[in-house]
Amino acid sequence: MLSSRHEQLIDELEATATRTYLEEVLLACLLPLRDGGPTSWDEVTVHDAWVTDGYLAIIYTSPWGPKVGVVHTEDSLNREKPAVAGWDLANFSIAEPLGSAADHLRYDAEGLGWYGDLPAVQGFPSKPALDG
Q1: Buried b (16+ CB within 10 A) or exposed e, 84-123
Q2: What are the angstrom distances between the C-alpha of 106 and each of 20, 85, 102?
């Protein structure tokens, strides 16, 4: 299900004149989750996403639940072309049921389960504070 935050994220990224590698990956991930792909993209709700400190984080409701967060570092994406890395992330991670990843979630202070490159990120991924 397409959320207003999902649309807002796409609009913000598309309006950015110069995007970083991870911002390009994030945009390339968000587009097929809006427009469709070979997997259960229509069962995904993106609640929030951001890029900071060398990683990208996405909070979403996975197909058939639950709400989780995934984090990937620039290194873990193997420096693939952003379009390839984003498409793969959308279709073969986010738009698929969690499967065995559900057995290895690490929970933050708010009770949200995270998976992905957590050992590479100090603490849990935290959204950067907004200016102002």
Answers
A1: ebbbbbbbebbbbebeebeeebeeeeeebbbbbbbeebee
A2: 27, 23, 9
Per-residue model confidence as pLDDT tens digits over 26-75 = 999 999 999 987 777 788 999 999 998 789 999 999 878 889 999 998 88
- pTM of the model as a whole: 0.89
Match 């420096």 to its residue by tokens: 79
Backbone angles phi, psi at 65, to 5 degrees: 80, 165
Is the Cβ–Cβ distance between 54 and 74 less than 8 Å?
yes
Contact call for residues 24 and 86 (beta carbons, < 8 A): yes
Structural contact between residues 56 and 49, judged by C-beta atoms closer than 8 angstroms: yes
Q: Find the angle CA(3)-CA(49)-CA(112) to the nearest 5 degrees.
A: 90
